[in-house]
Write the structure tokens for this entry.
Amino acid sequence: MRHPAPPLAALRCRSRRTPAEHESVKPRRLVASHVAWQLISFAFFFGVWEIAGRWPVSAAFPPFSQTLLALVAMIADGSLAKAYVSTLQPLLIGIVLCGIAGVGFGIGMGLSRTVEWLTLPVFIILQAAPMAAMIPLITYLYGIGLTSKVLAVVFLAAPVIVMNSYKGIRNTNPSLVQMCRAFLGTRRQEVVKIILPYAAALIFAGLRLGLAMGFIGIVIAELLITPTGIGDLITYHSSVAEYPSMFAAITSIIAVAALTLYGLERLERALFPPEIRGS
Amino acid sequence: MSRFLRIPLAIPLLVTLLIGAFPGEAGAQANTRIKYALGDVISVDELPLLVAVERAKKRGVEVEVTAFKSEEVATQAVINGQADIGQGTPYAAIQKVNVPIRFFYQMSALQFFPIVNIEHYKSWKDLDGQEIVVHTRGSGTEAIMRLMAKEHKINYKSVSFVPGSNVRALGLLKGTIKASILDATNKNYVMKEAPGKFAILPLGQVKASDEALFATQAFLDKNQAAVAIFVEELVKVNREINKNPKSIVEERKKLGLLKDLPAKLEAEILPFFEEAAKGGIFPNDGGGESAAKNDLEFFQLSGALKGENLKVGDFWNFAPLKAALAKVK
């Protein structure tokens, strides 16, 4: 039995907001609640850190407040900015190289069985290789300069970027490819108008994950090859027992990496619809 | 609980659980089995230690040596109670960390060699406005090079950091490094590999510890007898080396130490200890107060130690050394 729809006036009596207002208020409330819980979570984490530092968990473990003060001091004296200029140089070179060559390889592997047969095992092995163990090999071959650090970034970032690009191409919806063929589309049109746009989201996700691996690579390189940039700040402050500054440097690189990746994830969501992102 | 609640709460809870699961071991009990943290690879220069360890074992003091990646890790092991004795010169950590840790024995004095490629430089004056390469920022090698610059009234263009004497030695041989500072083993290696290509610059009197032993005050108080036996054996080995450097080669064979040493390194044992004995690197008296005073001066200059009027008693405990020296007279 269908109930008759309540008159509009009656609805207005029950709620002071129009349905349209309801739609806009609900997400705003959810967002506010989400942000509030995130802030509570951070406050709880930093509180636990403060207690652990004052307890102390270890005599060398500084409380959050001291770490924060050290971070502010490092920002104020310019040492943190100087370190980031040094750290970001090999990271960006490595990521740009992977972005061009890695995506190229991935697309090539996705489109050609021969390229796949030749290069897929290399990237699978690279993906499984423990990076820290490969650092001595890189330094023996390329010394201790910028090249070695760029290579450390490339070795970690390239497999993720290549594999994502390759999977993006391979996972193109076959119905779309068949549709293109049914309309007598050429191979070029099939690749440019169907496959590449469809794979774009996974390629972008690969670049984002590659950057995450790149951050790991550059910090490992700066700690194990020569101490420069953030690696230098960590090593130096550790050697002179300035533990709050050492923790501040570590926290800053974690924060920079996390915020960069969060920003890229938001960009990815804005650029690609969920059906292409596969989520 | 909503998804929004679960995710943010999960992270801090996980962290809290992790912190709670690994409490500090500052209260760990020590006995005559001494856990020794070495911040280096066990090699030729550790032979005096290894001999002393074997001899102390025969006297009921078992010293268990663990090699860590760096001096910092070895220091953390002592601070957190996972090791009883550490080897190194962590003056900065002792000054800043709120744990009473004291040095009690100087194993060896600094022995470094400023080295230059003679195609480019021949003297300290030639290094004015040039790039030099040292171990790390704040290290003893940097302090020595800066001290020499001050003495010779020169200014370096830049100071680069390449950790590891062996890595800098390779850089010198490859030509990527033109001026640096090396330890004895690597200086000998470079001079042997490229005779006539490099020169050692004269170094003034730099008296500071390269390696010293440290432990928590509590450990030293609780284990006076065991520590005295160990220090006694260390002093005896040093005296034997200074009297006759060949003794360490014989002792190594007798005790079967460093059996897997490559023939190339084996040949370097005697020259290394002959040079060390000549340079007075291994003290006959465990360093004592003079070593402590020199260290404070040197590490203050290097920037590792901060503040004025530093007191030897805040860094050193001489009781174990005095007890040991009383027995080896």
